[in-house]
Amino acid sequence: MALEGRIVDFGVADILQLISQQQKTGVLLVQRGTESIEVLFWNGMIVSAHPVAKDDKELLGERLLRSGLVSEGQLQRALSIQRKNRQHIGEVLVEMNIMSRETLDRIVHNQIYDTFSDLFQWKDGSYVF
Q1: Nearest in space to 52 (alpha carbons), one of 25, 30, 19
Q2: N or C, fewer C-beta in 10 Å, the chain?
Q3: Between vectors from CA 53 to CA 102 and to CA 60, what angle results, nearest 5°?
Q4: Mean pLDDT per 10-residue section of the chain, whose length is 129 residues
Q5: What are phi and psi of 32, to 5 degrees?
Q6: In 1-129, which ranges are E strands?
Q7: How high is the pLDDT of residue 1?
Q8: Residue 79 contacts by C-beta under 8 Å, 6 or more apart in sequence?
């Protein structure tokens, strides 16, 4: 299923619903100017949504640092391990016992919520699945 077009012609909610109903697996890339958001689907279910990071402030590690859930030293150690093991930064922090699985899940949930809150405001841009 190749799907692409403009948001002005086919809205974000409609695109998400179509992919979900068709139970597709893949990546939806939505772009507006210099901003991009990826939504990952597995058998029609959204499993991840995040801005394509143009800026460190959009990264999970930076969000955790700003919220005070990790220190700069903890984040740097976790990033070092992440580069070696190629794991998600959140998984590394849980394995290091810096944060609980529940805290990580809550932060990731909030990050996805913020991403969709932003995305649903877009009235122009393009998408490709």
Answers
A1: 30
A2: N
A3: 20
A4: 89 94 96 94 92 70 90 94 91 95 91 90 95
A5: -145, 110
A6: 4-6, 26-32, 35-42, 45-51, 126-128
A7: 64
A8: 61, 89
Count of CB atoms situated within 10 Å of the CB of 3 = 15
Q: Looking at residue 54, what is its pLDDT?
A: 60
DSSP 8-state class, residue 54? S
Nearest one of 110, 126, 107, 129 to 35, comparing CA atoms: 126
Give bridge partners of residue 24 from the DSSP assignment: none
Cα(115)–Cα(48) distance, integer angstroms = 10
pLDDT of 108: 86
Q: Which amino acid is at 42?
A: W
Domain ranges of the chain: 4-128
Report d(CA 42, CA 45) in Å as an integer: 5
Predicted confidence at residue 116, as pLDDT, reads: 92
Torsion angle of the four alpha carbons 122, 90, 105, 60, in this order, in degrees rounded to the nearest 10: -30
